[in-house]
Amino acid sequence: MAKYYLLKTEPTEYSYEDLEKEGKTVWDGVKNKFALKFVKQMKPGDLAFIYHTEKKNR
Best label site of 14, 36, 54, 58, fewest CB within 10 Å? Predict the structure, then answer.
C-alpha cells in the first residue's frame, strides 16, 4: 500500500521547475532529523505532494 508524503522546498535552493527539468532528484539536503526519518522511509510508488515557499520582498 502506497504512503503519502508532504514535501516542502525552498525555490531559491531547489525549485519545482528544477525538478521538472531533471525529471527526478535525490533529496539530500534535509537537515531536520524528524523529517529525515520519513524521507528515509519513502519507497518507489509512494505519493508526494510538493510545495515550496516564497520569500516576499518587503
Answer: 58
Amino acid identity of residue 55, one-letter, is K
Q: What are the phi and psi torsion angles at 20 (to 5°)?
A: -60, -40
The ranges assigned to domains in the chain are 4-52
Would you give the distance in Å from CA 26 to the centre of its chain?
Answer: 9
Tell me which residue of 25, 22, 20 sits closest to 42, measured CA to CA: 25
The contacts of residue 25 (CB under 8 Å, 6+ apart) are 14, 18, 19
What tens digit of pLDDT does each residue of 29-46 get?
Answer: 888 899 899 889 999 999
N- to C-terminal Cα distance for the chain? 45
Exposure of 34 in the CB half-sphere (CA atoms within 13 A): 0
